[in-house]
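pls ignore typos typing on phone
iron/sulfur cluster + seq
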Amino acid sequence: MAKKFADTQNLIIVNTCCVTKEAEIKSLRKFRSAKRQYSDHKVIATGCACRLAPEKFHSADQVIDNVQRNEFIKGIFPEPEKSRYFLKIQDGCNGKCSYCIVAKMRDTVESKSIEEIVKEIKWAVSRGYQEVVLVGANIGLYGYDIGLQLIDLPKALSKISGLPRLRLSSLEPNFVNEDLIRCLKDLPFCRHFHLPVQSADNSILVAMKRQYDIVYLEKIVSLIAKSFTDVAIGADIIVGFPGEMEHEFDNTYKFIKGQPFTHLHVFPYSPRPLTSAYILGDPIDRRTKRQRLWQLKDLIKEKNHEFRKSLLGKSFDVVIEGSDSVPKGLTDNYIRVFIDGACKTKRVFVKVNRVTDDKTFGTVDNA
Ligand code: SF4
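k done
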C-alpha cells in the first residue's frame, strides 16, 4: 500500500485485525494514537477490523477494508526489509468453523494464478530474498476458485529452475496428505509444518465444527514426522472454548505431549460477533484460560528444548536475518540460531553446537 501511495507526503497507514477481541482493541488503539500523534498527517485505516466495524474508523481520511485492499494492491509486489518474502497465494475461506471471524470477513476465495506466483517468486529472487513463505487465509483452499488444488502449485514449481527456499505457512490438517508431502519433498521446501489443530478433544472439535478428529490428526502428524528428518511441527491451540471442561483440555494437553510437536501458538478463546459460537458466550473464566495457556506454553518450552538438543552436531541450511553484530538466522526447520563468527553470504550452512533452554548457537559449516 505504501508503494501505491508513494507520491503522498506525511501518510500513516494503520493495518487492523479483528481475529480476537484483543487484536481489535489494539488496532483501534493504534489508529487513535496515530490520529492524535500525527494530526497533520493523512491517516488511512485498512484491514479486517475496518470491514467488521467501519464506524469505529470514521475519523480516518480514508478507509480501505481488506476486500477493497486486495483490489487496490493487485499486481504490486511488496518489498519487506527482511530476508524472507511473504507471498500471498490466496485469500479467503469458505469454512464454517464456529469460532472464526476470518471466514466472515474474507468469505470469498481468491487465488493468484500459477503464472502470477512464479513471476512473483522470480521477482523476490531477483531482489535477493533467500526464502519465500507461501501465505494465505487458508492456503489449503488454493486454487478452489480457478479450478486448481494446492498440490498443483508444487507440481508446477518443480518445473522451474532457480527456486529459492520455500516454506508453507499454516496449513489446515484436512489438506495434508501423502501426495502433497511427496510433491513437497521434490522441491526445496522447508521441513516445517504448522497445523491449526485448535483442540485435540473430539467433542470440542465437533463444537468448533472442525473437519477432523483425533485419529485423523494422529495419522497426519505421524505422516509428517516419518516423511522428514528433524522436521518442525507447530500447532495453534485455542483454550477455553465454551464448554471446554478440565478433562477435555487434558485430552489436548496429552495429545500435544505425546506427539512430536516442536512449536505452539496458544490463544485464549475470544467470542467474535457473526460467528455461530458467539451465542454460547464466554463461560470459561479468564483465570482458567490463563492457567491452560501457561500449562501448554510450559510444555512446549520443554519439548522445543528437547527438539533443539536432538539437533546438536548437525548442519542446517540457514537464512541470515538482519545485520546484528552477532549474526543470526532461521534454519529450514524453524530454529533461530545465533552464529559464532562472520557470515559472508545471506544463506549458509550452520552446525548446531550449543543449546540452552531458549537459545540455539552454531558455527558456519564449510564442510
Ligand atoms: S478453516 Fe480457518 S479460516 Fe476457514 S473458517 Fe476454519 S478457522 Fe476460519
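The mean pLDDT is 96. The chain has three domains: 11-70, 78-309, 315-364. more later
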